Design the sequence.
């Protein structure tokens, strides 16, 4: 019977391997995302951002228009089709540590504390309602002076601290008490010139520490003033530079031990607040003066990047802002007046990342960067993503500054680098998000990474038909004002 059976084909010498058994990922086992995994999918987060809503600053006080509102109407009435040169625009923004409140200040002197949840909910309402609900403001004050910077007090989240480049005062407001007067005013010490006249010192930036008694502010004369609120309204310590150029930005590290400063001369300065060899170099009137521990010329460090030097002339440029990466504290981001951004590694003092957008004159020789504003960028709380307003266009750059050569902005980046951890490779690239207005300052929600951008101004026209814009024939129709832009992740992308 066996001779009638079909013989069985011999098996191959290399039998196929059984399919691999399914195994749980490390994320499911330990509930944590590896940093490389976060970076591999960060492109999805960057691609998901789009403008959600604009909230124009058309507010009122006691039934009348606030000073910022009035200034924009005046500027629009007399400077139609021209850039406005008066006081205008949102100059600074900041979230509190829990992301419950957002504070903003304007060049015209308005200080406003917004409830973020109210803003977010209103962003989903019909666009017919363009203005923010003023009744939901926590605080709205109109002060008779220019305001250039604002920050929450890290040690007391009921306090906001403001400065002006036109005044030598630090204004501290307690939002628990609705008052147009600050609860505390700190002043710099008067400085007399060789001719005997007082030297004007405006204040540019603020840093607060976890110690409620200490506040720091940089000035237009190259000094960081340090106050101890328990002692006096005048500084107890001055951190000096080797020049008298304006310090535009300062950053205090997480341990309140090292402070970084940068400004008009293109230098980054470093002070050690713990003392050391320069702890008491000069002492006068119970005031101690500290020279910097070190100073770094940023243009010299940029010249060390061979490909960059081969393509561009490296000259010293004004530094608008410096920011410490919250997810990688040794990364100090910088932003220059020509729109360049990058990262300085404070461990080895090398520039590790650089982003160089094309200059304004490349596309239009008549366009130049707005030099009236110091652009104030911000980090996302995770993934080492940097958000900065464009120097020439209406929009923001979302930059991948991950501390590794897999970042597209890294000076050693190679396009053929393969992704790690077996995760499907995502395109790693920086992204520009076009917006309806030019951006001066950015703030990022500390928990959900929603971006809020403050703007300069834009022309508002009267709509006569849903699809037709009528340019005003009379100057009364044209207004110029700035807005809060909410940039959030798209639900489709998420």
Sequence:
């Amino acid at each position: 019977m066996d001779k009638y059976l079909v013989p069985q084909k011999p098996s191959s010498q290399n039998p196929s391997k059984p399919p691999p058994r399914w195994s749980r990922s490390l994320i499911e086992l330990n509930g944590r995302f590896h940093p490389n995994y976060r970076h591999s999918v960060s492109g999805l987060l960057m691609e998901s951002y789009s403008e959600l809503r604009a909230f124009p600053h058309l507010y009122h006080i006691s039934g009348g228009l606030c000073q910022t509102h009035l200034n924009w109407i005046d500027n629009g009435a007399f400077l139609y089709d021209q850039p406005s040169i008066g006081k205008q625009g949102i100059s600074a923004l900041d979230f509190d540590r829990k992301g419950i409140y957002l504070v903003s200040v304007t060049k015209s002197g308005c200080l406003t504390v917004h409830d973020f949840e109210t803003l977010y909910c209103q962003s989903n309402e019909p666009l017919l309602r363009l203005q923010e609900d003023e009744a939901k403001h926590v605080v709205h004050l109109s002060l008779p002076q220019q305001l250039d910077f604002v920050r929450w007090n890290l040690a007391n989240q009921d306090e906001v601290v403001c400065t002006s480049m036109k005044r030598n005062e630090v204004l501290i407001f307690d939002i628990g008490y609705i008052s147009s007067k600050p609860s505390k005013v700190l002043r710099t010490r008067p400085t007399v010139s060789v001719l005997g006249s007082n030297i004007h010192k405006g204040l540019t930036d603020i840093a607060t520490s976890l110690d409620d008694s200490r506040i720091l502010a940089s000035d237009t004369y190259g000094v960081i003033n340090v106050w101890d609120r328990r002692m006096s309204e005048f500084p107890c310590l001055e951190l000096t530079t080797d020049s008298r150029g304006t310090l535009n930005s300062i950053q205090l590290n997480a341990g309140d031990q090292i402070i970084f400063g940068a400004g008009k001369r293109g230098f980054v300065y470093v002070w050690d607040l713990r003392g050391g060899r320069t702890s008491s170099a000069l002492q006068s009137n119970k005031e101690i003066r500290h020279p910097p521990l070190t100073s770094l010329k940023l243009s010299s460090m940029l010249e060390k990047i061979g490909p960059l030097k081969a393509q561009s002339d490296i000259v010293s440029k004004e530094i608008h802002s410096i920011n410490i990466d919250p997810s990688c504290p040794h990364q100090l981001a910088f932003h220059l007046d020509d729109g360049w951004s990058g990262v300085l590694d404070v461990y080895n003092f090398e520039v590790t990342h650089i982003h160089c957008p094309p200059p304004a004159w490349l596309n239009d020789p008549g366009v130049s960067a707005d030099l009236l504003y110091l652009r104030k960028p911000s980090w996302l709380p995770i993934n080492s993503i940097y958000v900065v307003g464009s120097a020439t266009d209406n929009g923001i750059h979302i930059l991948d500054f991950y501390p590794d050569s897999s970042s597209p902005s890294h000076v050693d980046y190679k396009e053929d680098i393969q992704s790690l951890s077996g995760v499907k490779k995502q395109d790693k690239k920086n992204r520009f998000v076009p917006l309806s207005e030019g951006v001066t300052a950015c703030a990022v929600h500390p928990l959900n990474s929603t971006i809020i951008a403050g703007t300069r101004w834009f022309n508002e026209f009267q709509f006569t038909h849903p699809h037709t814009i009528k340019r005003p024939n009379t100057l009364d129709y044209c207004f110029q004002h700035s807005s809060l832009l909410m940039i959030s992740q798209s639900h489709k992308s998420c």
Observations:
- DSSP finds six helices and 36 strands in the chain.
- The CA atoms of residues 154 and 210 lie 6 Å apart.
- Residues 76-86, 278-285, 418-424, 458-480 have pLDDT under 50 and may be disordered.
- The first helix runs from residue 26 to 30.
